[in-house]
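It would be a great kindness if you could assist me with a short task in structural biology. Thank you for your consideration; the sequence and its tokens are set out here.
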Amino acid sequence: MEESLPDKTPENAVNTRKWLGKLRVSSLIRWVFFLAALFWVYRNWWDDVPFQDLRLQYTYPDSRFLYFDNMDVHCRIQGKGTPILLLHDAQSSLHTWSGWTEELARKYQVISVDLPGFGLTGPHPRGSYSAFMYAGFIDSLVSNLGLKKFHLAGNGLGAQIAWFYAADHPSRLDKLILLDAPGFEPKNTPWVMWLARTPVINGVMMKITPRSFLQLMLEDVYADDVLVTDSLIQRHFDLLRRPGNRKAFIDRASVSDNRPPVDIVGRINTPTLILWGAEDTRISPEYAYEFHRRIPGSLLRIYQNTGHWPQEENAAQTLEDVLAFLEGKF
């Protein structure tokens, strides 16, 4: 019988083959991840939506555009009587007040506005998004509308602008309404804001806009995720892609401190109603009590099963309290 010859394959050759096998698997994994990332970018790369298309879809019959401060400012004005000016939160638009507007307009002139950087108004011409810019913007808006004295309500960022304005212009206001107002909470920077401040990445963010991120944002704002409908997500997604709005988001993120000094809250002497969602995960309801303590004679109402935008999620109950407050029956 013929004897089998011993395997004379050098040990280093065997090791080389094993290493090459591992290398091929590693290379395959990298390619899979690369192609998956490329596909994700492709699926989430969105161009701006032409302004005229957005204007046709997202204006109201009573919408108008006022030109001042080198901007065409989108406003909605409905009803007659004492004016009430409504200011929306960041990542929102004047559409947030739709649940209040029709009923309020039975007795008041209701004015809502897309703030610079949001909605159909779009970016500020100088890319400025400081608290002082917004305060100056309200001055210009009030002047253009010819308002002598009015009620003022704001939610989130809009509430911050409102209390800043109320502290500096007490003679202009009849009553003040603050919904989930920033000011006393510790300052933190969400991860998306860190990304918006990072060179190269922030440039990519002007084109890559995952719709799923908008859904997550809205689910964070609302206490009840069932209310985050496809149409709600689509409106926010479309308006974010108004030409200039994504750049405005990055410019706002670059403002290191966009908060007015909160100590001036104690100067407010306008009759004030403070409304807050008990399930607000952005600004804890504990800070509602701080505003209540600091603003003399203020009234406070906290709503169960309600998040950061009470005027949307709990329109009927908040509106009932607002009407009672405005009519002196709260």
User: Anything to note?
Assistant: The chain has a mean pLDDT of 88.
